[in-house]
Amino acid sequence: MAVEAERGRVKGLGFSVHGGLDRVGWVEIPTPEPGPGEVRVRVHAAAFNRLDRFVLEGIPGVPIELPHVLGSDASGVVDSVGDGVTDVTPGAEVLVNPGLWDGTCEYCKMGQESLCRNFRILGEHTQGSATEFIVVPRRNIHAKPPVWSWTQAAAAPLVFQTAWRALRTVGELRPGETVAIIGAGGAVAPAAIQVAHRLGGRVVVVGRSAEKVGRAVALGAEAGLVVAAEKPHDRLLWEWSNKRGIDVIFDSVGAETVARSLRALARGGRLVVIGATEGPKVELDLRTLYWRQGSIRGSTMASRAEFDAVYAELVRGHLLPVVDSEWEWDRGVEAFQRLGAPDVFGKVVLRTDAPAQ
After folding, report:
1. How far apart are alpha carbons 205 and 194 in whole angstroms?
2. pLDDT of residue 332
3. What is the C-alpha to C-alpha distance for residues 192 and 181, in angstroms, rounded to an integer?
4. Do residues 179 and 202 make contact, with C-beta atoms less than 8 angstroms apart?
5. Cα-based angle 266, 267, 272 (whole degrees, multiple of 5)
6. pLDDT at position 61
7. Tell me, what's the pLDDT at 263?
8. Smallest Cα–Cα separation from 9: which of 25, 24, 30?
9. Which region holds residue 128: left if phi is over 0, alpha if psi is between -120 and 50, else beta?
């Protein structure tokens, strides 16, 4: 990638007008400069999430600066630091927590940063990571594990913190309980399978592809169920649990699956919704909800303490970043198109100017 910083501009993969995949291309934005308490990271790898597709299409109520750079995850080297940053120096190899909070609201003071009134996500509310430099608060950088490649480091932050909070904190998953991951592929599901297994859950994954379900089982799921027209996932889960139901269901699909997930809950079960990739509006039978004394809970990103906890699990090797594919910088548009492929499994990562590892 050509270095443009000396001209006060850097290139990034993004868009200038909201729309479909045909809008994605190369854009230029001002070179970011670190302010007090901030660091600038020279990006070596950036990873995409389904969130990027929503940003591209335009999210109601979320204004963004145009042109806009995509990407929420990043790994790289600290390039410079702002005033007041004394515990990190240029050259440090880091990965980035993409959750941004103000640290001053009532929720931040309670240690619930993901509930911050001004919570933002890198690449959604700010310029993204698929560029040469990004600037984030010092608290958002963490040391890259030496044994990891830049690609692995970029693949981990968003999906693992999302899965950790959803299952451990919001879902209150306890050892020995059953947990179902709805959707076998994508980027979040492989992380959720590992987290659920690490927390002691009996994990079952539901998907439409036998190939992706098989890969999910290899990550720690006890069983994989393939949805067919005559066997939707609620029936499959009901049969797998011997008509007991599932204690915790992790659902990121939304309109297509939430009602069926509710029917598959055990008594006292928790349905945790972390996304709505197939639509945000659902129709539910409330009798199922109150008769089983179940609950539907929402979860987004993670608090600072939750990120630290799952980061420690990753560093110890208890959890493994899953990479679908790695792309060189000049194939950035192809990389972003890969994000929507039906067989994607794990994170799609774009390398910038660093040599492949």
Report:
1. 11
2. 96
3. 7
4. yes
5. 60
6. 86
7. 96
8. 30
9. beta
CATH number of 5-156+321-351: 3.90.180.10
Enter the DSSP assignment of 167: I
pLDDT at 354: 45
Q: How far apart are CA 38 and CA 85, in angstroms?
A: 7
CATH, domain 161-298, list 3.60.10.10, 3.20.20.70, 2.80.10.50, 3.40.50.720: 3.40.50.720
Which residues lie below 8 Å from residue 289, measured CB to CB, with a gap of 6+? 262, 295, 296
- The domain locations on the chain are 5-156+321-351, 161-298
CB-based contacts of 185: which residues, under 8 Å, 6+ apart? 207, 209, 212, 216, 342, 343, 344, 345
Alpha-helical runs (H) found in 76-219: 106-109, 150-155, 157-164, 188-198, 210-218
The residues near 186 (Cβ < 8 Å, ≥ 6 apart) are 50, 252, 277, 344, 345
290, burial (CB in 10 Å: exposed 0-12, middle 13-18, buried 19+): exposed
Phi, psi values for residue 168, rounded to 5°: -80, -50
| Peptide linkage before 232 cis (omega within 30 of 0) | no
Rounded Cα gap, residues 31 and 229, in angstroms: 51
Query: For the chain (length 357 residues), average pLDDT per consecutive 10?
Result: 60 96 96 97 97 93 93 97 96 98 97 97 96 97 97 98 98 98 92 97 94 93 92 95 97 91 97 89 93 96 98 97 96 95 94 58
Q: Supply φ then ψ for residue 37, to 5 degrees.
A: 75, 10
In three-state secondary structure terms, 138 is: helix
d(CA 124, CA 312): 26
Q: How far is residue 355 from each of residues 178, 179, 200, 276, 328, measured CA to CA in Å?
A: 43, 40, 39, 36, 9
Are both 5-156+321-351 and 161-298 of the same fold? no
